[in-house]
Amino acid sequence: MSTVLGVSCADGVVLAGDRVVASGGHVRSRSRRHVFDFGRVGFGVVGADVDGFADRLASEIRTYRTERGDLDIEPFTRMASDLATEFDAAVLVVARDGDGRPALRAVSPDGGVTADDVAAFGSGASVALGALEAGHDPDATLDEAAALARDALSAAAERDAGTGSEYDSYRLSA
C-alpha cells in the first residue's frame, strides 16, 4: 500500500508519505506520489486509486479558488471527505483554520473526520503512529516535526514491506 502521516507543532504542520505502491504482496512501483502540495493547502492519500483521487481533489480545489477564493480547513475537509467515500481512500488534509493557524485533519475511507496532533494511514500506519506518538512535542519547530516524520516513515519502512524509504513531504508554517 504505502504510508502517509501528519504532525502538528507550534510552527505548523508537516505531511509526509513514501512513494511505494504494493499490492498482492509485491511492490508495483517506487515512484508514485502520495503527498500533494497546492500552496496554502496540502494532502496525503492512500488507497487503490491515488491518482484518480488526487486529480478530482485538485479539480475541486481549483474550482473553489476560482469561485470563492482561499480555501480553509473546513471546506477542504468536506471536499476530501466526500471524495474519500467515493474512492475508498484515507486522506490527511492540511490548511489554515478560521484563525489562520495551520490545521491537520484525518479523513477515513468512510468519510469520518478527526482532528489530532499526529495521524497516519496506510500499511505502515501502526508503526509510524507509534513513533510519532513517542516523539511528538507540540512545541517543536517545523524542522523538528519534519525530522520526526522522516524517522517515523523510516521506522515503518523497516517493518512494513508496503512502505518505502523514499518520501515526499509538505509543510505549512504558522
TrEMBL record:
Highest taxon listed in the record's lineage: Archaea
Protein name stated in the entry: 20S proteasome subunit A/B
InterPro entries on file: Ntn_hydrolases_N (IPR029055), Proteasome_sua/b (IPR001353), Proteasome_suB-type (IPR023333)
Segments crossing the lipid bilayer: none
Gene Ontology MF terms in the entry: endopeptidase activity
A single Gene Ontology CC term: proteasome core complex
Record's keyword terms, sorted: Cytoplasm, Hydrolase, Protease, Proteasome
Species: Haloplanus rubicundus
GO biological process: proteolysis involved in protein catabolic process
